[in-house]
Design goal:
By secondary structure, the protein is mainly alpha-helical. Helices cover 65% and strands 5% of the residues.
Length: 958
């Protein structure tokens, strides 16, 4: 069985033959100098170690030393170190110190060389002597001069001088001395990277019985350099990426090892700083670069970089193809690229992009550098490039149009074989340029060629699937996930996450197959727990909570939501926070706002800058819903608007639809029905595009607020047809089911009202510990039957909860029932409490409704007439109650109201008054509530009624 050293000498038969010949000559009493000349990592040092071992086995005395760059400045130090090494040194410590003293005095050099000749000859007379000097190119001039004298003088003695050197450029006198020595007295054996068959044989011996594809990947990554092949195999085995399956060795994953510094240690240390800098700049430019490009990037003259380029070529790191330099090993290219500090690397990519643009290089190269730069300015420039390509698509050759995404993907993977982050950024650029089709093609190509055999590959694969899901492409995502699941080579940790992702895709692809999704999610959780994969367990548990919510088991959903977030965020950025969004929404709807806030804060804090762009729509949605539950309507609207803007940048249709629905709801409840109608229209102006249970619900609420409950009931046809399918939505807020009862009663659809009451009762009975469901069931029952007791119990239930608007709504209905039982004063107190809640929340619709009912006297309640018999709004505001309402406005509110009545927008009003738009919005919201209006035209009527001239007066400066 060969040793590992013998294995790594594969393909070096000629060199080993030269070595045996030299040892035979030494044993026969003849001296010589044998030098192995070649690049770093080609096996020179291994040959020297093999020679020393063979010489020792033959009974020869071996003395050896490895030189370093600083030895150029230490006279005779390398040779004296070698002669003093080994179990039988040629010179002892005292002699070495004496000889070193001679080396410091040039007038004694001749005497020094004579003494060395005598000492070496005396030891060689006892037994053949082998003196090994590795990295001879770093020798000082005196050592080289001594060898130039000693080698021929000892040619008749059994002294073998073994050396190895590279073609590193050194200072001129030393270079000349080395060249003279090699030319006059040495047998030089040149080495280079192994030919492909020999490199494959070496990799096969190191790996074992591996397949040809795995062997080829290792050889290609190492560029055929023997030392890199050996180090690469060692690190892959250390990472657990070399496995034996059915007697065959497999290399998992096509990406390099994690520790690139260790992987390239045989070839990169020892380089001059200028050479390393050139290589790093070249690595940014790409696997192939010219000296002119490197000079342009560094701002240095080309000739200043020539010496560094010569050293890099001599070291075997670069190949000269006649027109440019090419990195011999992709492993070295990536190691040098990643060794740069992040800000430096990004700045160099930005400069490289400008260089490519100036030279009119292919667009994927320029865009690739802009993506890797990552600054906002560069990303905007990248989007501009893509927009230009879109405008001029007809003038481009067909192959350039078709190959854009493929060429860009190849460009990104030259720097990062996994490339999940850069591909995500590229998708953002395509979306910003209005090219969603190209974004999808890029993702599809990246996923089709991605691996999942290692944890790193599985993570990258999952990230790209998540992006595909964000673009609303669940069928494509499911196709890629099933292809990965069918491959048993994926790691257990990766399989857990991919299984959970498949469970997420299933309902969107199979008409709401939530039972199958729950089964897959449970399997993902079990697998994750077996492998201690907390992130996958959290994702699977969050999905189980979502399935329980869909099934109407809110108590179980609440339990699972708490379990999903119990350990804090586990790599939430990988899924852009989906496994935190679901628990936050469930916790908030179930009356646990503090827990929901903690989840949202942890989610935001754990999301990095780049991941935030993708997480923002979902986070703003969850935050807006939580603010809605807390009756902070203005803040909720701002969050929803921010989320909608983020959706526009990323073409996230799912979050966009939910956020638009939420804006309709918020505008309706705040009493701004015109703005709600604007939000109801889809982006292209077609309301038909705004479909689904959630949009149908908010549309019905808007129609009811506009005085059309019959049309609202008709709009909820799908919900009434199968309310069990929509329990997740109907139980999302304790306002919903009671309000559906109210709408149905107003429209005369008593059977629908009864269905809503029964559904509320079943939900509360199934989850008795969820307070909002209990309150909603009591509220719905009391409203439907006109009973005061359930309504009073609903009020008491909501008082201890965290849904102020649900409390206000219950107070309204309880006031009606209380008055009917002959308690008008108590009923008025309830309405006044409801009014305070509505005003504080900015809920103009409810505030106006309550104001009308308490207008005439504190002890009398005026029932709101049915929508069908409600008189139309008059064009003139009545007195005296209108005057009282106007007098309740503060001076700041009056100033805002007068400017808005002139037709100014909130932003223009803010500029006129030198305040923030948020301040204007707050004043306007309070004025709407106090005046009991919901539209700006009604506000203008108030202003006209309080202007003596009948015109809207200019606001005073006070």
């Amino acid at each position: 069985m060969p040793t590992s050293g013998d294995q790594r000498l594969v393909g070096r038969e000629r060199e080993q033959a030269a070595l045996r010949t030299a040892l035979d000559a030494t044993a026969a009493g003849r001296g010589s100098l044998l030098v192995f000349h070649g690049p770093s990592g080609s096996g020179k040092s291994l040959l020297l170690r093999t020679a020393a071992a063979q010489a020792a086995r033959r009974g020869m005395t071996v003395s050896s030393a490895r030189l370093a760059r600083l030895d150029q400045h230490s006279a005779m130090a390398p040779l004296l170190t070698a002669l003093g090494a080994g179990p039988h040194p040629v010179v002892d410590a005292a002699q070495a110190r004496s000889l070193a003293g001679f080396a410091d005095r040039p007038t004694h050099w001749s005497r020094l060389i004579r003494l060395l000749h005598r000492l070496i000859g005396r030891r060689a007379a006892q037994s053949p002597l082998v003196i090994v000097l590795d990295d001879l190119q770093w020798a000082d001039q005196l050592t080289l001069a001594a060898l130039e004298t000693l080698v021929p003088r000892l040619a008749g003695a059994p002294v073998l001088w073994l050396a190895a050197c590279t073609g590193f450029p050194v200072v001129r006198p030393t270079r000349d001395a080395l060249d003279r020595l090699l030319a006059a007295h040495a047998d030089v054996v040149p080495l280079s990277a192994l030919e492909e068959p020999a490199a494959a044989q070496l990799a096969a011996q190191l790996l074992g019985t591996a397949g040809p594809e795995d062997i080829r990947r290792v050889v290609t990554m190492a560029g055929g350099i023997p030392a890199l092949i050996g180090r690469l195999v060692h690190l892959l085995r250390e990472e657990g990426r070399i496995r034996t399956e059915d007697g065959t060795v497999r290399v998992l994953g096509g990406h390099p090892p994690v520790d690139l510094t260790r992987a390239t240690a045989p070839v990169l240390p020892g380089l001059a700083p200028q050479t390393r800098e050139l290589l790093q700049v070249g690595a940014v430019l790409g696997p192939r670069f010219s000296l002119r490009e490197a000079a342009a990037l560094t701002g240095r003259p080309t000739m200043e970089l020539a010496t560094a380029a010569q050293e890099a070529v001599a070291a075997g790191l670069l190949e000269d193809d006649g027109a440019a330099f090419r990195f011999r090993a992709p492993l070295v290219h990536q190691a040098l690229h990643d060794s740069l500090l992040g800000p430096v690397r990004r700045a160099l990519h930005a400069e490289a992009a400008r260089l490519c643009a100036a030279e009119e290089r292919p667009c994927p190269e320029t865009i690739g550098h802009l993506i890797l730069s990552g600054t906002q300015e560069d990303l905007e420039q990248g989007a501009a490039h893509l927009e230009w390509l879109k405008r001029n698509e007809d003038s481009l050759p067909s192959h350039e149009r078709e190959e854009l995404t493929g060429a860009l993907l190849a460009q990104l993977r030259r720097y990062d074989p996994l490339a999940a982050g850069p591909v995500r950024t590229a998708v953002r650029l395509f979306l910003a340029a209005g090219r969603p089709g190209a974004a999808r093609r890029l993702l599809d190509a990246a996923l089709a060629t991605a691996g999942w055999e290692t944890d790193a590959e599985a993570d990258a694969f999952a990230e790209l699937v998540e992006v595909l899901l964000r673009l609303g492409q669940a069928p494509d995502a499911l196709r890629h996930l099933r292809r990965a699941r069918e491959d048993t080579r994926s790691p257990a940790r990766g399989r857990a996450w991919l299984t959970a992702l498949e469970a997420r895709c299933l309902p969107a692809c199979s008409g709401g197959e939530w039972a199958g999704a729950a089964s897959l999610a449970g399997a993902a959780v079990d697998l994750a727990r077996q492998t201690a994969d907390h992130a996958s367990a959290a994702l699977g548990t969050a999905l189980l909570a979502r399935c329980a919510q869909r099934a109407g088991d809110i108590g179980e959903a609440l339990r699972l939501a708490g379990e999903a977030v119990a350990g804090g965020p586990h790599r939430a950025e990988r899924s852009f926070g989906w496994e935190l969004a679901v628990p936050a929404l469930i916790l908030g709807s179930a009356g646990r706002p503090l827990d929901a806030d903690e989840v949202l804060k942890a989610w935001r804090d754990s999301t990095g800058e780049q991941g935030w762009d993708w997480a923002a729509p979902r986070w703003h949605l969850a935050r807006s819903v939580q603010l809605w539950h807390s009756a902070r309507l203005a803040d909720a609207e701002q969050e929803a608007q921010a989320g909608l803007e983020a959706c526009g940048r990323l073409a996230d249709p799912g979050s966009g639809k939910a956020l638009r629905a939420l804006l309709v709801l918020l505008a309706t409840v705040r009493g701004d029905l015109e703005r709600a109608a604007t939000h109801l229209a889809s982006p292209d102006g077609a309301p038909s595009g705004f479909t689904g249970a959630l949009p149908a619900l908010v549309t019905a609420l808007h129609l009811d607020a506009s005085g059309n409950p019959q049309e609202a009931v008709r709009h909820l046809t799908d919900v009434w047809a199968g309310p069990e399918r929509h329990t997740w939505l109907l139980a999302a807020d304790p306002l919903i089911l009671p309000h559906l009862v109210r709408i149905a009663l107003r429209a005369g659809a008593h059977e629908h009202a009864a269905e809503a009451v029964e559904l509320a009762r079943r939900l509360a009975r199934r989850s008795p510990g969820v307070v909002p469901l209990t309150g909603a069931a009591l509220h719905a029952q009391g409203l439907y039957r006109g009973l005061a007791a359930p309504l009073h119990r609903a009020v008491r239930t909501f008082r201890g909860g965290s849904h102020p608007l649900a409390l206000a709504s219950a107070l309204e209905d309880a006031a009606d029932a209380t008055r009917a039982h002959g308690e008008p004063l108590r009923a008025t107190e309830m309405l006044q409490e409801a009014q305070r809640i509505y005003v504080a929340a900015g809920a103009g619709l409810g505030a106006e409704r309550v104001r009308r009912r308490t207008r005439f006297s504190p002890g009398r309640i005026v029932r709101e007439p049915p929508a069908a018999t409600r008189p139309p709004a008059t064009s003139v505001v009545r007195a005296p109650e209108a005057a009282a309402d106007w007098d309740s406005l503060t001076p700041s509110e009056v100033r805002v109201v007068r400017l808005v009545a002139e037709g100014l927008t909130n932003r223009e009003t803010a500029q006129r008054l030198a305040v923030s738009a948020h301040t204007v919005d707050s004043h306007l919201r309070r004025a709407f509530a106090k005046l009991g209006v919901s539209r700006r035209v009604e506000l203008a009527r108030y202003v006209l009624a309080h202007s003596p001239s009948g015109q809207v007066p200019a606001p005073t400066s006070s």
